[in-house]
């Protein structure tokens, strides 16, 4: 009985720590809303905490955080899921055993190293040759994705054609779809080639680096979800005459859908909670880009603001500038907590579904 109580105490210690974190952050966040109200905090874009009187509008900071997160996930989600599908169902086992550890090594690199690379190497490159880099990135991302799309479409369309005519039809579709993909990529890259980037420390820089940082989480969790589908469903699909593309698209991915969504949510949490990279390479400008989705302009995020302003706030007297940082931390913590609950619920639902 004593041993069980000790184990229960050890197990529940982490939950107690989380509750204390919530308590102390809420305790220091409430005075700000009592002093300044809620309207200015959520609707104003004027962030001048050192002025007299101070202005504490965080709308531009929320938009900066959202823009960086969306950009990073737009990069990491398709590449991560595609990599997970390749590791799970396309590449030979020996190659998978070599590539997966290399991808997971990315998660072990300190964020300050990514931030240093973004600030010292990538930002000057963006500023000097931004258009050409965007064009190259378009080809690097578009060509494999387009090639995969062409293969899948050709496989799906020719799947019901007689076997003696299938190879000829597939070759025709490869030429037609491949030409369309190359033409589209040429058009997009030619337009991007003329783009000039005034500052390399901007939302695009941070989004690319954060996308790379989120990749190991998305790849690893998605690949585990795809592996959990089991051989029975795959063999049953092949036995019914489905091709590999049909099996992956119509059987494996839908069966692992909950796990893949959980992987994307975990990737979002990894991105939105990152501090060092956004502080070093986002430009830290508390402004709403023109237009708001322009990722080539500097932005400021919640985590960078909290880390950067905490040292300048009056922590002894408890000024509004001090409490507003806790209000921002509370919003960030609540979002992360709800995202974690959602991912746990999705994983639990996936296990019940797979387990029958």
Set down the secondary structure blueprint.
Elements: H1 2-36, H2 39-43, E1 47-48, E2 55-56, H3 59-90, H4 93-105, H5 111-158, H6 163-192, H7 203-227, H8 231-239, H9 244-255, H10 257-272, H11 276-281, H12 302-309, H13 320-355
Antiparallel strand pairs: 1-2
Helix pairs in contact: 1-13, 3-7, 3-10, 4-7, 5-6, 5-7, 7-10, 8-9, 10-13, 12-13
Would you kindly provide a brief summary of this structure?
Residues 62-343 form the ABC transmembrane type-1 domain. With 356 residues, this protein is mostly helical.
How would you describe the overall organization of this protein?
It is found in: Cell membrane. InterPro entries: MetI-like, MetI-like_sf, Phosphate_Transport_Permease. Belongs to the binding-protein-dependent transport system permease family. CysTW subfamily. The chain has 356 residues and is an all-alpha fold. Helix content is 77%, strand content 1%. The protein is built from 13 helices and 2 strands; from the N terminus they run ααββααααααααααα. The protein has helices at 2-36, 39-43, 59-90, 93-105, 111-158, 163-192, 203-227, 231-239, 244-255, 257-272, 276-281, 302-309, 320-355, and strands at residues 47-48, 55-56. It has a two-stranded antiparallel ribbon with strand order 1-2. The longest helix has 48 residues, at 111-158.
């Amino acid at each position: 009985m004593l041993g069980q109580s000790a184990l229960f105490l050890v197990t529940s210690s982490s939950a107690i720590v989380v509750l204390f974190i919530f308590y102390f952050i809420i305790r220091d966040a409430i005075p700000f809303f009592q002093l300044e109200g809620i309207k200015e905090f959520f609707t104003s874009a004027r962030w001048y905490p050192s002025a007299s009187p101070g202005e504490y509008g965080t709308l531009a900071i929320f938009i900066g955080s959202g823009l960086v997160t969306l950009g990073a996930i737009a990069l990491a989600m398709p590449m991560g899921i595609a990599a997970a599908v390749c590791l799970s169902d396309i590449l030979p086992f020996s190659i998978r055993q070599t590539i997966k550890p290399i991808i997971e090594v990315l998660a072990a690199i300190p964020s300050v190293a990514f931030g240093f690379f973004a600030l010292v190497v990538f930002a000057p490159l963006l500023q000097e040759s931004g258009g050409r880099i965007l064009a190259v990135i378009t080809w690097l991302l578009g060509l494999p994705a387009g090639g995969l799309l062409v293969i899948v479409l050709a496989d799906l369309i020719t799947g019901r054609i007689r076997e003696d005519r299938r190879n000829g039809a597939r070759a025709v579709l490869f030429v037609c779809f491949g030409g369309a993909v190359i033409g589209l990529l040429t058009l997009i890259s030619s337009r991007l080639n003329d783009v000039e980037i005034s500052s390399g420390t901007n939302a695009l820089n941070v989004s690319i680096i954060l996308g790379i940082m989120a990749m190991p989480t998305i790849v690893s969790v998605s690949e585990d979800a795809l592996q959990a589908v089991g051989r029975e469903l795959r063999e049953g699909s092949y036995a019914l005459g489905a091709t590999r593309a049909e099996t992956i698209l119509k059987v494996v991915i839908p069966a692992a859908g909950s796990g893949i969504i959980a992987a994307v949510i975990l990737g979002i949490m990894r991105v939105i909670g990152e501090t060092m990279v956004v502080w070093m390479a986002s430009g830290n400008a508390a402004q709403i880009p023109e237009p708001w989705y322009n990722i080539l302009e500097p932005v400021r995020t919640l985590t960078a603001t909290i880390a950067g302003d905490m040292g300048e706030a009056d922590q002894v007297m408890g000024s509004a500038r001090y409490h507003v940082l806790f209000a921002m931390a509370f919003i960030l913590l609540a979002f992360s907590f709800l995202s974690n609950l959602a991912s746990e619920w999705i994983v639990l639902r996936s296990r019940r579904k797979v387990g029958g």
